[in-house]
Each structure stands twice: as C-alpha cells, then as structure tokens.
Model the fold of this input.
Amino acid sequence: MVRIRQLFLFVFLAAAAIVWSDQAVVDYVDGDVWIVRAGQSARVRADFGSLLGEGDLIITGARGTAVVSLGVSSQVKLREDTEVLMDDLLGAGSVELRRGGVFARVRETTDAVARRFQVTTHTVVAGVRGTEFFVAFGRTIEDLPDLWLCVNAGAVDVSVIDTGDVTTVNAGEGINILGGRRATEPRFYPWTLDLNWNFDPAQGPVADDTDLDGAYSDLLDQDYD
Done:
C-alpha cells in the first residue's frame, strides 16, 4: 500500500509540472503591475511567480515593468503603461498588445508553440522563431495609432491584417506601420540603439525608458504623404 501511494504521488506531481509549464509565469516585476483574470474586471497585484492563463490581462502602470515567460522558449517584457492579453498559450502561442510596448525573445527550439509564436495587435500580426524584437504603439497621426517594430536578432514577418501585405524585417532593421495599415520600408533607425533588450535583473537594469517620440524625427516629412 505504501508503494502504491508513493507512485500515485509521483504521477500527480509530474502531471502538475506539465500543466504549470504550459502556463505563463511572471518572472519579474518592478513598480505597479496588475493582472485582470479572464472573465473578471477587478485588478490584482502581480508578483514574482504569478501564473497567467489564456484570457488573462497583464498591465503595467507608470514606471512599471514586467517580464513574463511563456513556456521554456519565449519571454515578453512589458514597458510602462502597457496592456498585454495572454491570447493563445497552448495553441498558436500568441499574445495581444493592446497598449504600450513589449520586447519579445524567442529561443531557437523544436517546440511547436515557439515555432508559431506571435505578437498581435488589432491591425498587425508579427510572427517569429528564434529572435528578439520590439513592438510598440506610436503617435496617432492618421485614424489609428502607428505601430513601431524593430528586430534585434533573427527575422520577423509582419502581416497587416486589413491588406494581407507581409513585410520581413531582419536584424538591425525597423519599420513603422502607419495608422496600423501601411508599412514603411525596413531600414535602420538610430533611435533603436537606445532600446534596453535586457530581460535579466542579474545582468543590469531591465526597464526600458526609450523616448519613442524621437523615432519620428526623420519620418514626418517623407512617409505621411
């Protein structure tokens, strides 16, 4: 009887570990960070180790920063004043950026979810594998806000939902999706050198305070015609 109980306990714990690995986990918080659980409206404070399920919303306040792991192969870092929905953790592997900006890191892996990892907005889908990239809302100059995307490593395929146009952005390049509908040509932007790509507090500061308004210095005269 004792041996049977020990076997049951081992199997139960192993199954629990598998379920936990398929959830998103908050790895780092600094400042105000909240979670709104799926189907609820109240905010609860996020903490180190907080679990996130599909449909949960994680929110950072002014000067807030959070890092979330999605399985063993993907992480996202939220800038201040950002909202991210845990959209599809077990299927396509995607999160939805609703406000603010995120950094994403996807390690090279054979994991099926990581291969299909995406960051989406209401107008754009960014699909990646084995890369580091940054996505953030910019100014609202046309009907809808602009969307900035730049790549630190690897490549990202950016699809505009309304038109179906796809642009591949390689390491060292950035684009602006004007009004969420029209992508500029990928090129190097000096402002991207100021971005903080660090996810690990043991390696230095994690928060990114890049002034995205500076990104418009060489765009306004040539891309909004």
The CA atoms of residues 128 and 156 lie 5 Å apart. The chain has one domain: 2-216.
